[in-house]
Amino acid sequence: MLKLRSDYRPPAYLVTAAYLDISIFDDQTLVTTRLELTKNPDAGTGANEMRLNGRDLELKRLSIDNIEIAKDDWPLDDAGIHLTNLPENCVVESLSVCHPETNTTLEGLYLSGGMYCTQCEPEGFRRIGFYPDRPDVMTIFTVRVEADIAYPKLLSNGNLVETGAASEGRHFAIWHDPHPKPSYLFACVVGDLECAEDSFVTASGRDVTLHIYVEKGNVGLTGHAMDSLKRSMKWDEDRFGLEYDLDLFQIVAVSHFNMGAMENKGLNIFNSKFVLADTNTATDTDLHRVESIVAHEYFHNWTGNRVTCRDWFQLTLKEGLTVYRDQCFSADTHDEGVQRADDVSLLRAAQFPEDRSPTAHPIRPESYREINNFYTATVYEKGAEVIRMMAAFLGRDGFRKGMDLYFKRHDGSAVTCDDFVAALADSNDIDLSGFARWYEQAGTPHLLVKRVDDGKSTITLDFEQTLPETAAKTPRNPAPIPIRLGFLDAAGHPVATSLTPDGVSADEHVVLMQKATHRQSFHAASGAGDVALTPSLLRNFSAPVVLADDLSAAERLHLMAHDTDRFNRWDAAQTLAADAIIAAATGGNSLDADAAALSGAYRNILGEADLLDAFKASMFALPGVSVLESRLNPADPVALYHARMRLQAALGDGLSDIIAAYLKDDVRHALQASDGGRALLNALLMLGVAASSKQAEDIAAAQVLDANMTLSQGAVMALNNSASAARDVGLSAFHDRWQDNPLVMEKWFQMESMSVVGGTVARLKTLMQHPSFDPNNPNKLRAVLGAFMSGNPVHFYAEDGSGFAFIADCLIDIDGRNPQISARMVLPLTRMSAYDDGRKAQMMAALRRIDKAKPSNDLAEIVEKALAANS
Ligand code: PHE
Ligand code: ZN
To answer: pTM above the 0.90 mark?
Structure first.
């Protein structure tokens, strides 16, 4: 059934208090929900009816105001209990049974590695007990949890009120959460867990106890997460004046989890991959991700929990905003330029392709069949870009004023994206209605910028925006596009310009484009003489658009070398590399000239003493196949992959002397001491091995065994696509070293799957028989199948369709156990719009086969959209 945003109706009843009793037994769990209901004054004169959602639950008892309802009179339907003719105020109590011990969906209450845990967002609570499972019903929960004493820890949200013995070898705990919350933020964890403990004193002096719970033996791996948590708490106070609001903050790490982590009030539940990390088991990139996810979930305490979503169409209200906040935190904590390059890479690799696909949707969707399918790069990453544009427009203080008003108006309630934008607008007395278009229109705008030549120290730019049609068929009106820009002279210095012949000059301007076309002249300050101005456009990626400009390769090299905007230095390199790869993939171009020019530019960058190693390293990251594809129709991912590898080899050749110098023992050891240095070293090692440097291969082979995971994994990755003995030796050494560590083994699976020389379908089948593989663990599925689809184009897009057929088989199997995961993992199979007819037909055949196998609602929504879009 399709749900529409326009169908929203307020709930007829509110829950003024909820009492849960959860009693866990080996073969079943008993759940009582006792709800105090009162008619919603804002609901108009609707009928006195109320829905308690329930899914896969067995109802045992139902009473209203303590009067038992006979079983034959239970108002049950497919969706749960439908109560009618209720008094204005009443107490409804239900007792039901659920089965965590056989729940493989990983939503609701389930078992992971011997511990019971919950995942309720978005609609998992209804798998635990009967309840009005919608985010605009917020209430105060009191929860009693009971289990066998073999499970010593009984956790839930809020404050621990009471513990004690229950009948025969059982015990209980009672938790009370004073903050009203929707059911999706409920959590409960029961298990034999170890705890790392610390504390944080808030700005106003509240002493908060911090607990991180992990499986036995893992406490030593929680230090980085704990440190990240404390720094996040401090940052939110400093930047937004937001303090934590309970005396206890708990994190639990679980090994079976569909997503990254979950912001349940006072009891965040994490995929263990994003908690357990030290420098021996996790790379610098992994550690960085742990930090940003810990921050993200913590930041949700205000943007998500204190102020939540009225309905699930508003998901970007909390997710776009919280991603924006965690990006700001990471930029402040590390380097702004590197962070922006990383964030834009992700946007281009994951979100732009979504906009071109059958599942395209605006950041605030208009309809859905299964809300689980809308936890997307569009809602998250593009949502963050939309907030970023408004924040940049308002300036730092203006955005802060807007946030302050948002909390003042809406604390403790469930609101819409319009409410958020209104708070930003009202607090700044400014009209933001144009930005509303970004919430309703799918698709990535194309921004065309052309120079109109008018000679002497004046430059005129013509801007044009167009919005391509998408599968979502949303309106395609011009939206406000802020274009941050500046100019460089021939020596690479910034040139101040003014927007009128005698206006005030500045090195940088923001042109806010409001219409389909826009023309703007820039006048170099008088006295500048006749200067050649190189435009630096869309600085810091000031809007989530595809930019097409008329710059020459020489001008891009100039920006790459000199721009004051580091994002644009990085992006100039991205464009140059993409141009070279595409020319080589489509025209059989030898690459020599392009690679020589790029090598020269990289050589200079390596020599720049003031530039961070981390930034230099990010400059070497060549655009991935999913980004390259977007510029071609038809696109051949296999040809692009090979051309990309050839560019890597050519750069390795062109820089061979300098790589050799960096790999010398003393220089190398110095680089190994910092995260930026390690990133740079790994980038150079990759190029060296790609160019078949014996020195690079030998160093990589030895570095596989380094105690530092960044160096070890960097070495295996460098070797991973070369058909050499060193690759096999390296991978098996890595395997043997880590075979008892399930999390590190995910890296091994991933590298095996991504290898162009090793990662064949036959090899993947073997990997899935490995003792460390677990078909019920999403991390393992992502490590083998996800990595194959995104990182091994040669075998996934194989000419004979074998990659697609294999994935289809796997997905049909997975769908029977975990529909969220099958629906997410099918996405690459639906992204065929730019492929040739042969590949399209094979992908369609794979999708049809899935469709015939009667997929879950989750998987069916995606597959049927793709079939419809391509038929
Ligand atoms: N709300 C979580 C986050 O973004 C993501 C999530 C969604 C986790 C659904 C689990 C299930 O932080
Ligand atoms: Zn989130």
So the answer is: yes
777, 814 contact by CB (below 8 A): no
Q: Whose CA is nearest to atom 1 of ligand 1?
A: 262
Distance (Å) of CA 20 to CA 35, 92, 108, 143, 320: 9, 12, 14, 5, 32
CA distances, 684 to each of 80, 384, 770 (Å): 59, 32, 33
Give the distance (Å) from ligand 2 centre to CA of residue 157.
18
Please identify which of the residues 263, 297, 354, 752 carries the catalytic annotation.
Answer: 297
Question: Which of 579, 570, 692 has the alpha carbon at shortest distance from 620?
Answer: 570
Q: Are 613 and 681 in contact (CB under 8 A)?
A: no
Is 70:76 a contact under the CB 8 Å cutoff?
Answer: no
Cβ(423)–Cβ(400) below 8 Å: no
Cβ atoms of 741 and 734 closer than 8 Å: no
HSE toward the beta carbon, residue 470, CA cutoff 13 A: 25
Tens-place pLDDT, residues 64-114? 999 999 999 999 999 999 999 999 999 999 999 999 999 999 999 999 999
Best of 183, 184, 259 to mutate for ligand 1, by most ligand atoms within 8 A of CB?
259
Q: How confident is the model at residue 43 (pLDDT cuts 50, 70, 90)?
A: confident
Question: Does the CB atom of residue 481 touch ligand 1 within 6 A?
Answer: no
CB atoms within 10 A of CB 695: 15
Contact between 149 and 24 under an 8 Å Cβ cutoff? The reply is no
Give the Cα separation of 775 and 386 in Å (integer): 37
Q: What is the 3-state secondary structure (H, E, C) of 413-476?
A: CEECHHHHHHHHHHHHCCCCHHHHHHHHCCCCCEEEEEEECCCCCEEEEEEEEECCCCCCCCCC
- 113-155 residue pLDDT tens: 999 999 999 999 999 999 999 999 999 999 999 999 999 999 9
Question: In angstroms, rounded to a whole number, what is the distance separating the alpha carbons of residues 540 and 538?
Answer: 6
How far is ligand 1, taken at its centre, from the CA of residue 262, in Å?
Answer: 5
**What is the Å distance from ligand 1's center to 263 Cα?**
7
Residue 529: is its pLDDT beyond 70? no
CA-nearest of 731, 816, 818, 757 to 782 is 818
Strand pairing partners for 415? 309
CA gap 273, 252 in Å, rounded: 12
Structure tokens at 166: 């229950």
Can 297 be counted among the known catalytic residues?
yes
Q: Whose CA is nearest to atom 11 of ligand 1?
A: 121
Atom of ligand 1 nearest to the CA of 107: 11
Two structure tokens written together for 746: 């995910």
Q: Spell out the long-range contacts of 776-782 with Cβ–Cβ below 8 A and sequence spacing 24 or more.
A: 776/104, 776/256, 776/817, 776/818, 777/255, 777/256, 778/106, 778/256, 778/257, 778/258, 778/818, 778/821, 779/255, 779/257, 779/271, 779/273, 779/743, 779/746, 780/746, 780/749, 781/814, 781/821, 781/825, 782/825
- The answer to whether the CB of 59 falls within 8 A of the CB of 94 is yes
Long-range contacts of the stretch 391-394 (C-beta < 8 A, 24+) = 391/324, 392/482, 392/484, 392/510, 392/542, 393/432, 393/435, 393/482, 393/512, 394/424, 394/428, 394/430
65 backbone φψ class: left, alpha, beta (φ>0; ψ -120 to 50): left
